[in-house]
Design goal:
CATH superfamily of one domain: P-loop containing nucleotide triphosphate hydrolases
CATH class of one domain: Alpha Beta
CATH topology of one domain: Rossmann fold
Helix content: 55-70%
Distance between the termini: 64 Å
Structural class: mainly alpha
Largest sheet: 5 strands, parallel
Shape: globular
Strand content: under 5%
CATH architecture of one domain: 3-Layer(aba) Sandwich
Strand order of the largest sheet: 2-3-4-1-5
Number of strands: 8
Length: 912
């Protein structure tokens, strides 16, 4: 077993130096030429002791930054703040590394970039020692650590202690000879090292006894340290060694029992009675033992370094080594079985009184106090869910006997909550009906909580079913409950208000009341931030990404990325709430013709969507997937996706705008595949109300064009083009484009030119090119090139995407196209097909530079652009510098202005 890894800015605590065990061979390797050293071995192998001894023996206290990774660390910001503090605490680092403090918008990528910049001038060697790296659970933090390792200056050396090999791409360093790996076999103590360890603990053994002990432990560090603790002051050390045998676990249990029996009575009582806890502090220890001084005893035990591990830098919370804890509980059960219920009840009361709901419920259940357990879970269920501890809430509910859940209306409501998340709406409805039927049995003092739980579940069930009227009603009820709770429970009232605002915004979005939706979502985000509910904020930001269909696509991408990054920082990267964010971003990418990026976003979303219970989100996902397949000319895949979208549309219990889009896109896919008969059948199968939908009228126009009847197409589009129909952005562009194609075919080139210019003007602010891929008309664009000169960059992009073998995977005009099959012009100057009017670039802009350039008018930072384009931050910054040189500017705003003047970017965005 390894001593606890405690925090410190420049290294481990000085008290450790008294226990230094010189291990010359390993010290030499740690001092060697490798830039990265990975110390990988199971628990108890002596990793931490080795590193502490090496630092003390080598006199590196001022040049080694020590970072312990907390168990289950999932917060990148907290980890990187510890790294920055540790490096700043070294002598060389103190003059280079700037102080960094926690902030809501500070992420690990930014801290790594700052560290790389600050340490670029490092001249003296510094070691960054990270203990228990395997506890670093955040995928983002792992990638960030890999980035720091790969780009750090050569004077910064890394020592990584872990229980298993790390997925940090270290194989590249191995090939370059810059990685040294110290493994379990290397960490085994030699006989002479074992003697030094025992002598440091005040134990002296004869040669034969030492050899026997070393042979039986096989140099296992934990076994030797445990033996040293047991042998200290033992009256018959040689006899002890003679009886020391067995497997590693048997040896550990034997030694732990020896150690436990040799502890003073007060310490033994504390260890046994607090073993029921997963974590313990001094106050809890005093309470469970009816003694004082528990905190001091725990600190002394932790200082011994074998069984007790500090969980925080202040050494106020501790846990026991799992093997030790198992033994302690066994001993407690054998010696004092009658005290267990009382100990659990006391612990439940303490945790309840200090706001640790999950631990309070667990101990109340262990004590058999089902009433307290049920009350605690009901009172804190909403807080657990808003902090996305849903798995914990479900686990706690599963700890109740089934008959008790069925008989308790509050627990029955929580059973419905579990069904809403991972089960069926029908089962959830059945449980809610049973709970309501049992409401007369709810005590008067519990009825406000019961009504609150019921209202929240009604809202969540309505959202799962996409029952918009029920959702609006439930959100209103929740707002009323928030007002009622304002005085008695202000924090609960604000939680309810945030949930209600976001639910109202979600409902209004589906009803296409976009101003109201934006207002309520924005209010919900602001409130969630103020009350410290990041999961609620993620939920609101993710919903806002869906406004992409009707508002600024740039804003939608920004909100979606904010939701994803915030969720990743908190370890929620796979949460179903992100389905809207990923799908909204992917939808925008499809509209913009960024098909590779859209493909990646949809892959990210796919697993999440499968676990998402909301049919509207699933419908949006399959619609985006189908549009992507359609844009790439894969018509069979498009039709399969639209069929899947139709299945999810059938689950919607109230009218919704999304199915109309799916119906229209299905017709387009059939037309592009050349199957006019099936397209006609698809339209005929719709009822009269569906055929009057604006997007279906647009699809009918496309069908009539394919049938060679432009007049019928113009007639179908007339109600759409008068501006009264509310459509998504691509549909508005598509309607104008189809009108241009129809007017051209009807022999009215002037009207065609007007309609085409209108389509391009609508498309340019958000870079929407999808309609030009679905209804390819390159010859039309060529014939009206002069009128389209104001949109040269957009036209060039469309032509490039329509070209066979286009970089994003489109395949040019295919059967069923309406605008001819003229060949696109050759690429000139790297601008996607044509040079912009008045271009005076120093050098042509490359394709990747153009992709980066399109993000410069947004509020996205370099790191966010990098994530969007799947590039490193360094690569994005390099492209930006090249753009500044080519545009002959010195800043981002100036670059945007210059690019617009050259026609590389659309004019200043305006809201449609």
């Amino acid at each position: 077993m390894e001593p606890a890894a405690r925090g410190g800015k420049s290294g481990p605590p000085a008290a450790v130096s008294a226990r230094v065990i010189r291990r010359a061979g390993l010290f030499k390797r740690l001092d060697g030429g490798a830039r990265v050293i990975e110390v990988s071995a199971p628990a108890g192998s002596g990793k931490t002791v080795l590193l502490r001894s090496w630092i003390a023996e080598s006199g590196l206290e001022d040049r080694a930054g020590w970072v312990p990774v907390m168990p289950g660390e999932g917060e990148p910001q907290r980890f990187w703040l510890s790294v920055a503090d540790a490096l700043r605490g070294t002598g060389p680092g103190s003059a280079l590394v700037r102080p960094v403090t926690a902030a809501p918008d500070l992420d690990g990528w930014a801290i790594v970039e700052w560290l790389l910049k600050d340490l670029a001038a490092l001249e003296d060697r510094v070691w960054l020692v990270i203990d228990d790296v395997h506890e670093l659970r955040s995928a983002d933090a792992q990638r960030q650590l890999e980035l720091l390792i790969m780009r750090a200056p050569p004077e910064l050396r890394f020592v990584l202690a872990t229980r298993h090999d790390l997925g940090l791409g270290l194989h590249r360093l191995r090939l370059e000879g810059e990685l040294d790996e110290i493994r379990a076999a290397d960490l085994r103590f030699s006989e002479s090292e074992a003697r030094a360890l025992l002598e440091a603990a005040g134990v002296e053994l004869s040669g034969p006894a030492l050899s026997a002990l070393h042979g039986r432990t096989e140099g296992w560090a934990a076994g030797l340290r445990l033996a040293a603790l047991s042998l200290a002051g033992h009256p018959d050390a040689e006899g002890f060694v003679a009886g020391f045998s067995g497997s590693e676990r048997t040896v550990a249990e034997y030694l732990l029992a020896e150690v436990l029996r040799r502890q003073p009575r007060q310490v033994r009582r504390l260890l046994l009675r607090t073993s029921i806890l997963d974590r313990v502090n001094g106050e809890l220890a005093d309470l469970l033992t009816a003694r004082s001084g528990g905190g001091r005893i725990l600190q002394e035990l932790e200082q011994a370094g074998a069984f007790v591990v500090a969980l925080d830098a202040q050494r106020s919370w501790f846990r026991y080594h799992r093997l030790f804890a198992d033994l302690l509980r066994f001993e407690l059960l054998a010696s004092e079985p009658d005290v267990l219920p009382g100990l659990h009840a006391t612990a439940a009361g303490w945790f309840a009184g200090h706001g640790f709901a999950a631990e309070a419920v667990r101990h109340a259940q262990a004590a058999g106090d089902w009433q307290l357990a049920a009350r605690m879970l009901a009172d804190h269920w909403l807080a657990l869910v808003l902090d996305w501890q849903v798995a914990t809430a479900d686990e706690l509910l599963a700890g109740f006997p089934a008959e008790l859940v069925a008989a308790d209306p509050e627990l029955t409501v929580l059973r419905a909550a579990s069904e809403i998340i991972g089960g069926s709406a029908e089962e959830a409805e059945r449980h809610l009906a049973r709970a309501e039927a049992g409401s007369p049995s709810v005590p008067a003092d519990r009825r406000p909580t019961f009504q609150l739980l019921l209202a929240v579940q009604r809202l969540r069930l309505a959202r799962k079913r996409a029952d918009l009227p029920a959702l609006a009603e439930a959100a209103g009820d929740l707002m009323d409950l928030a007002e009622a709770a304002d005085t008695a429970q202000p924090s609960l009232a604000e939680d309810l208000r945030a949930v209600a605002l976001i639910s109202l915004g979600n409902t209004e979005l589906s009803w296409q009341r976009f101003d109201d939706a934006e207002r309520h979502l924005e209010q919900g985000i602001a409130l969630a931030r103020r009350i410290g509910r990041p999961f609620t904020e993620v939920l609101a930001l993710s919903q806002w990404a869906r406004i992409a269909a009707y508002r600024s696509t740039t804003l939608a991408v920004e909100r979606g990325m904010q939701a994803i990054e915030l969720a990743r920082r908190h370890g929620w990267a796979e949460h179903p709430a992100l389905a809207s964010a990923y799908t909204g971003i992917a939808t925008v990418m499809v509209w913009r013709g960024q098909l590779d990026e859209a493909e990646r976003r949809l892959r990210e979303a796919e697993g999440i969507v499968r676990t998402s219970a909301e049919p509207a989100v699933s419908l949006l996902f399959y619609q985006a997937r189908g549009a992507l397949e359609l844009a790439r000319g894969r018509y069979g895949g498009a039709l399969a996706a639209f069929r899947a979208a139709g299945k999810h549309a059938a689950l919607l219990v109230t009218p919704h705008p999304l199915p109309a889009q799916a119906r229209a896109l299905t017709v387009y896919a059939l037309l592009r595949a050349g199957d006019l008969a099936s397209a006609e059948q698809a339209v005929a199968a719709m009822d009269e109300q569906q055929r009057e939908e604006a997007q279906v009228r647009e699809a009918v126009a496309a069908l009539r064009l394919a049938q060679g009847d432009p007049r019928a197409a113009i007639e179908a589009l007339a109600p759409v083009l008068d501006g009264t129909a509310l459509m998504v952005a691509p549909a508005r562009v598509g309607a104008c484009l189809l009108a241009a194609i129809a007017r051209e075919a009807a022999g009215d080139p002037a009207a065609a030119e007007d309609a085409l210019e209108h389509a391009l003007a609508l498309a340019e602010p958000d870079g929407i090119v999808l309609p030009f891929l679905i209804h390819p008309a390159p010859e039309l664009l060529d014939r009206h090139a002069r009128r389209c000169a104001a949109h040269a960059a957009l036209v060039a992009e469309i032509r490039a995407l329509l070209a066979p073998g286009a970089p994003d995977g489109t395949h040019g005009p295919a059967p069923g196209g309406f605008g001819g099959t003229g060949s696109p012009p050759k690429n000139r100057g790297g601008l996607g097909g044509i040079d912009p009017p008045g271009a005076t670039l120093l050098d042509p802009v490359s394709e990747m530079e153009m992709r980066v350039l399109r993000f410069l008018p947004t509020n996205l930072k370099a790191a966010e652009i990098a994530s969007e384009l799947y590039l490193s931050v360094h690569t994005v910054k390099t492209h930006i510098r090249h753009l500044y040189i080519k545009l002959d500017v010195h800043g981002r705003g100036e670059a945007v202005q210059r690019a617009r003047a050259l026609g590389l970017l659309a004019p200043s965005p305006r809201r449609p």
